[in-house]
Amino acid sequence: MKFGTKAIHAGQEPDPSTGAVMTPIYQTSTYWQKSPGDNKGFEYSRGTNPTRKALESCLAALENAKFGLAFSSGMGATDAVMKLLVPGDEVITGNDLYGGSYRIFTKIFSNYGIKFHFIDMSDANHVKNYVNDHTKLIWIETPTNPTMQIVDIAAVAAIAKENDILLAVDNTFASPYLQNPIDLGADIVMHSVTKYLGGHSDVVMGALMLNDEDLYKRLWFIYNACGATPGPMDSFLVLRGLKTLHLRMRAHCENGRQIAEFLKTHPKVEKIYWPGFTDHPNHDIAKKQMRDFGGMISITLKGADLQETYRIASSFNVFSLAESLGGVESLINHPVSMTHGSIPKAERDKVGVTDNLLRLSVGVEDIDDLLDDLKQALS
Ligand SMILES: *Cc1c(COP(=O)(O)O)cnc(C)c1O
Fold first, then answer.
1. Given this model, what pLDDT does residue 145 score?
2. Is residue 340 scored above 90 in pLDDT?
3. Does the bond joining 181 to the residue before it have cis omega, within 30 degrees of 0?
4. CATH number at residue 280
5. Of 142, 194, 204, 237, which is best to mutate to test ligand 1, by the most ligand atoms within 8 angstroms of its C-beta?
6. Do both 153 and 79 map to the same domain?
7. How many structural domains is the chain composed of?
8. According to the model, what pLDDT value does residue 327 have?
9. Would you please indicate which residues are annotated as catalytic (active-site) residues?
10. Does residue 232 sit in the same domain as residue 257?
11. SS3 192
12. How many whole angstroms from 282 Cα to the centroid of ligand 1?
């Protein structure tokens, strides 16, 4: 099946008890057993729930994976991957990560004896310098948040395979419509489902998709034992959101391209970060591993201090000033004070997350209204 068909149908059958075409919201915590152990495959909803199960099959199909696991947030999904590790293990990861990922690595898992190397991954070969006998996991984010750096997934996957290291890819920014890390050699794909997959800014959820059955069993054990699993109502909302993922992504990409082109030559814009430009440092890799370039764009404002950046960020009418991304509505974010506040200033400055940086999540409104809003806010 092709992507759009999977987004609408994968994992979903008419409901066996009523024939309902849409997967029902099985709002139950527990399931009847005829005699102990004699049940229909469901015992307790922390571990399994029919609405969530349909969603997990659909999520897996979208990443060309065998298995999907849904979590109550993207951070819950990341947390489960980290719990595969034991004290003494080492992780190699990027130096431009989602702030919450940086925070859970440095403030939680570092305390449990796990060592993290935050490195520049724009050249995949650089990863080799940090591999040693303790390296158990490589964690990639691409495109990165917020500076849209691109990491060569296939090249890092080759290094991971050669050294028997797990490779996990945070695919939140691209969405499975634009990029499928498992096809490029990754072992685990992680999503903040909250973003493009849910797509309507009404659910917080995370997911892992993978092919290896043994690894799936280990992760399912953590998922059930630790319990960061989502409820049936949220699972239903995401199943509903997924049905338009392919339509939404096409519109995000088209609007994103027009806005990136408009901003590139705007006199108030100092730098623009968008992987679709041929002068983006890793444009060729983006072109190779992504089907299009998405609707996430960051800019720095020319000559703007923090006050002026705040003024501009607050002067939009169609774009909403808010955290998060990937919904149908356009959002504008000030990473330094919002999503990336938990990263120390010295670390932020190294990767260009400066006071005058704004990140746009381009929605699917009419492009003329979005362009007019940018014109008036930047005037
Ligand atoms: C939002 C986000 C996360 C965290 O997901 P939550 O659903 O907010 O817990 C992780 N990675 C990236 C790239 C994100 O944008």
1. 87
2. no
3. no
4. 3.90.1150.10
5. 194
6. yes
7. 2
8. 97
9. 46, 98, 170, 195
10. no
11. strand
12. 23
